[in-house]
Write a structure and sequence with these properties.
The complex is a heterodimer. By secondary structure, chain A is α+β, with helices and mostly antiparallel strands. Chain A is built from nine helices and 13 strands.
């Protein structure tokens, strides 16, 4: 009886699947997916960093006057130098907080003791955006207890990097003083692998939104070493036209297909402004920014100045041209998802769409990739 | 040239997974040791594709998503192909996992945007329809048992669950099918 039943089910499934019309396999499809996966690997890593740079710049415009205490009126500026590492030059030098940031030697790890979801990841992103070499903790380095204040500890030899990290993370009016690494190290397991600077991120640096509490650096990317360092606030990049950019807590990058023609790029821009902009998401047209391949690569190389392996992967094929934009009304997770979905499906020649959200926005960073041309898939951003 | 079983983790076999040798099989002779013949990823793809798509279509409902699941599984396997000892079993697991992923994403997207109905082009079969209407946890066990003809142990290995769970799940699936079909 059972055997007959089993045989009937098996026969039905076999017969049914035989009716399925399976097209002849073409390995081209797999090759294309492999290539896209490689591109996305780099692109997804670049996205938060590039967005972070813009966010840092926009915050510096909107908050430099009201958020900075008089005692820490320094705004370190990122400057590319001919040397192998990126250094940071101070805009002014009238206090200890004005010191140039030192990025090496040392590797920084964040142990999130704030209890604020995503704060550790955001801090890691923030510091990596500035050029610090970060340990990829992936929540593996956990503090022993929740803390209110942020502490910075260092191993011998990394004092200056620790001081720079402390300078960047110092909350207005409450500077952080780095101290030597205690024994045992105050993380679960008592080890921080090969990291030499430990940041135990306290609630004070996270619960009101790190964006509004940290001293905001100005990012500059001169095209050559001899060019004068100019701040984003003084430049004419579109992001600065709208100091409110990122106020919704999210930004979106639309990666164009590497083989998109200039005409297709223009069509995509028009679609974003005329269709998507008035549709589900709502986009501030003044913040729509286009980075061509060279600009995107320049940004990526600067971001990866301390990571030769990633920097070596930066090329026209791995860092496609992109649009950056900021949603004005998609300020809920559902709204942001709808916006990302619309961008990925309604704009021709889009390769992928990624978002970045601040921890305080309660939004989910997403990475949406059109699989094939018409079947988008949605997943949390994994960077 | 002898067909010597090799350990894919051996450095000598590092390039075995490369694509495009034409024959679908690659012969390596490194130093004095004949490395033997190992199926390339492209050859495995061409050989396994139809059957894996048919397996996937039972799990994800549409041929479009089934093809996507299979192609994506091979794309993920491509960089680590040299470590794959049993392509059939490995790709079966990869495709089933991908089908789960596809179903999860579809359920998320379904909440956001109206999704097209299941593939209307597929033929109608009452038993197949009932099977495809089962919850995924039951459906995948039924498909692996009845369509792929796998043993309890092989199903357990494919799904990463204990054999006892396979038995109990299959028991529940049978009861459900019997109820629906009678």
């Amino acid at each position: 009886m059972n055997q007959d039943f089993d045989a009937e089910i098996a026969q039905s499934l076999r017969s049914w699947t035989e009716l399925v019309d399976v097209p002849g396999p073409s390995f081209y499809d797999v090759r294309r997916r492999v290539r896209r996966r490689r591109q996305r690997h780099v692109a997804a890593a670049v996205a938060p960093a590039v967005l972070g740079i813009v966010w840092v710049g926009s915050r510096s415009v909107s908050t430099r006057n009201e958020l900075q205490p008089a005692s820490s009126a320094s705004i370190p500026a990122v400057v590319n130098t001919p040397g192998p590492t990126t250094t940071l030059a101070a805009e002014t030098s009238n206090s200890t907080a004005n010191r140039p940031l030192v990025l090496s030697p040392g590797k920084v790890v964040i142990a999130d003791a704030s209890g604020v979801a995503g704060a550790g990841k955001f801090a890691t992103l923030y510091l990596s955006t500035l050029g610090f070499l970060m340990h990829d903790s992936s929540n593996a380095i956990a503090p022993v207890e929740p803390l209110n204040d942020t502490h910075v500890y260092y191993e011998p030899g990394s004092e200056e990097v620790a001081a720079s990290v402390a300078q960047v993370l110092s909350v207005a009016g409450s500077p952080i003083t780095p101290t030597p690494m205690p024994a045992p190290i105050p993380v679960v397991g008592g080890t921080i692998d090969d990291a030499t600077v430990l940041v135990v991120l306290g609630k004070a640096s996270a619960d009101v939104g790190m964006a509004s509490t940290w001293v905001s650096p100005i990012v500059t990317t001169p095209t050559n070493a001899s060019a004068p360092a100019t701040s984003i606030a003084d430049s004419d990049q579109p992001a600065h036209q709208s100091p409110s950019a990122f106020d919704s807590g999210a930004a979106v990058i639309v990666y164009m297909s590497p083989d998109a023609t200039p005409g297709q790029i223009d069509a995509a821009r028009a679609t974003i402004l005329n269709s998507i902009g008035t549709g589900v998401g709502g986009i501030d047209p003044n913040t729509l920014e286009y980075l061509d391949s060279a600009q995107a690569q320049t940004e990526a190389r600067r971001v990866y100045a301390n990571d030769e392996a990633l920097a070596a992967q930066v090329s026209a094929s791995t860092v496609p041209t992109m649009f950056r934009l900021y949603p004005t009304t998609a300020t809920t997770p559902e709204g942001l998802q709808q916006l990302v979905y619309a961008l990925s499906t309604e704009i021709p020649n889009v390769d992928a769409v990624a978002t970045l959200a601040t921890p305080s926005s309660n939004l989910i960073p997403l990475h949406l990739v059109p699989a094939g041309e018409t079947k988008p898939t949605l997943a949390p951003l994994t960077t | 040239m002898s067909r010597v079983p090799i350990d894919p983790l051996e450095p000598a076999a590092a390039e075995i997974g490369s694509i495009g040798n034409g024959s679908g099989w690659r012969s390596e002779d490194v130093g004095t040791r004949a490395v033997g013949l190992v199926e390339t990823v492209e050859a495995a793809y061409l050989r396994l594709y139809p059957r894996l798509v048919r397996l996937a279509v039972l799990l994800v409902d549409t041929t479009e998503h089934a093809e996507e699941a299979v192609q994506d599984a091979f794309a993920r396997a491509y960089p680590k192909w040299r470590f794959v000892k049993d392509p059939d079993a490995y790709m079966r697991v990869a495709v089933v996992n991908n089908c789960r992923r596809v179903q999860r994403r579809r359920s998320l997207l379904r909440r956001l945007v109206p999704q097209p109905q299941d593939d209307a082009a597929l033929g109608a079969d009452y038993v197949a329809d009932v099977v495809r209407g089962l919850p995924l946890a039951l459906r995948q066990v039924v498909v692996l048992r009845y369509y792929m003809q796998l043993s309890d142990a092989e199903i357990a290995q494919t799904l990463g669950i204990p054999p006892g769970t396979v038995k109990s799940t299959l028991h529940r699936a049978r009861a459900r099918l019997r109820e629906e079909l009678t």
